[in-house]
Specification:
The protein is of the alpha/beta class and 361 residues long. The chain folds into three domains: 15-105, 3-Layer(aba) Sandwich (Udp-n-acetylmuramoylalanyl-d-glutamate--2,6- Diaminopimelate Ligase, Chain: A, domain 1), CATH 3.40.1390.10; 120-323, UDP N-Acetylglucosamine Acyltransferase, domain 1 (3 Solenoid), CATH 2.160.10.10; 330-360. The chain is built from four helices and 39 strands. The strands form six sheets. Strands 10-13-16-19-24-27-30-33-36-38-39 form an eleven-stranded mixed β-sheet. The protein has a ten-stranded parallel β-sheet with strand order 8-11-14-17-20-25-28-31-34-37, with no helix packed on it.
């Protein structure tokens, strides 16, 4: 089935259990390997002709009740009591095998590779082989797109922009002038890369804008969710490192440096000139102040506010964010204090009488 732009809708394909097992190197325990699988579901909801997986041994009891035709399980998982119509596919890593199977059952959409007559492409722009530009997209002067890129409907790519190979821009993405993307970058709908940073100087009773003349560099294999904004640098560059994944509705301010393979969850906000090193996780709704460094492999828990540097591998939470163990200890102490509030109030009430006794002595 094709949509009006000539691209394939992603529909599940029918594949036999035997074929899936061969693809992910699984051993089959069951009597019906020729059964076709046409979709996937979670362990509780899966039914006939569906694939699922057992992600943790603590849920092994659900193998006796699942109606799935095939379940990916780890080696050593007991197979007794499993529904007679269910095959177990035994692998080293059920989650990774499940991902591989999902990619087979639900193949990614592919572009038509065509340039829509309703797109605007500046004559000085350069497009690599196999690149697709859909209707109402716009590509500015001196911009270069690599091979097999896919620019969907309504995108706006400014002047002097560079995209590597195999980049995918979902509808209504905006890349301001001078932005640079590496290979295999995915930008979801409504994301804006390279808007001016929020930089002002207060002089003579007014806010004077500091010109934002830098750029944004997104390295290879980065995926950025919908409606996320990454501001250009005032000077120099804002950078997102290789393999980093950014969720929806994230704000990255000017001159921020984000390392490789970092995770930024939904509604994270990062202040200007902050450094986020490699393999950091910022959970949902974290705020990080400007000019702060978050060390490699650190984790910041949800809704925390980071106001000072975080050491490598540290785990912090709360506002202002402190070491997770310290924060939990403080919360426990507050609960104990609240539990003893009546006793504290009684002591306060008795203080005047105690003072009278002491003075009489």
């Amino acid at each position: 089935m094709k949509n009006p732009h000539g691209t394939e809708f992603s529909l599940a394909m029918a594949i036999t259990i035997k074929e899936l097992a061969a693809m992910c190197g699984a051993d089959i325990l069951g009597s019906n390997p020729e059964q076709t699988i046409n979709s996937a579901a979670n362990l509780d909801e899966a039914g006939a002709r569906q694939l699922t997986f057992l992600g943790s041994p603590k849920y092994a009891g659900k193998l006796k009740t699942t109606q799935a035709s095939a379940v990916l399980v780890a080696k050593g998982t007991p197979g007794d009591g499993v529904n007679v119509g269910t095959c177990l596919l035994v692998v080293d890593d059920p989650e990774m095998a499940f991902i591989a199977c999902l990619n087979q059952l639900y193949p990614q959409k592919v572009s038509s590779g065509a340039l829509s007559a309703k797109a605007h492409i500046d004559p000085t722009a350069t497009l690599g082989a196999g690149t697709c530009v859909e209707a109402f997209a716009s590509i500015g002067a001196r911009t270069t797109l690599g091979h097999h890129c896919w620019v969907m409907a309504g995108c706006r790519i400014g002047e002097g922009v560079t995209l590597g190979d195999n980049c995918v821009l979902h509808p209504n993405v905006v890349l301001y002038d001078g932005v640079r993307l590496g290979d295999n970058v995915i930008l979801h709908a409504g994301t804006i890369i390279g808007a001016d940073g929020f930089g002002y100087k207060f002089r003579n009773g007014e806010h004077v804008k500091f010109p934002q003349v830098g750029t944004v560099v997104i390295e290879s294999n980065v995926e950025i969710g919908a409606n996320t904004c990454i501001d250009r640098a005032a000077l120099g560059e804002t950078r997102v490192g290789m393999g980093t994944k950014i969720d929806n509705q994230v704000q990255v301010a000017h001159n921020v440096q984000i390392g490789a393979h970092t995770l930024l969850c939904g509604q994270v906000g990062i202040g200007g000139s902050t450094v986020i090193k490699d393999y950091v996780t910022l959970a949902a709704q974290c705020g990080v102040a400007d000019h702060v460094t978050v060390g490699a492999q650190a984790m910041v828990f949800a809704q925390s506010g980071v106001t000072k540097d975080i050491a490598d591998k540290d785990q912090v939470m709360g506002f202002p964010a402190i070491n997770r163990k310290e924060w939990l200890h403080e919360m426990a102490a507050q609960r104990r204090l609240a539990g003893n509030q009546k006793a504290v109030d009684e002591l306060v009430r008795l203080l005047p009488k105690l003072r009278e006794v002491v003075s009489d002595e």
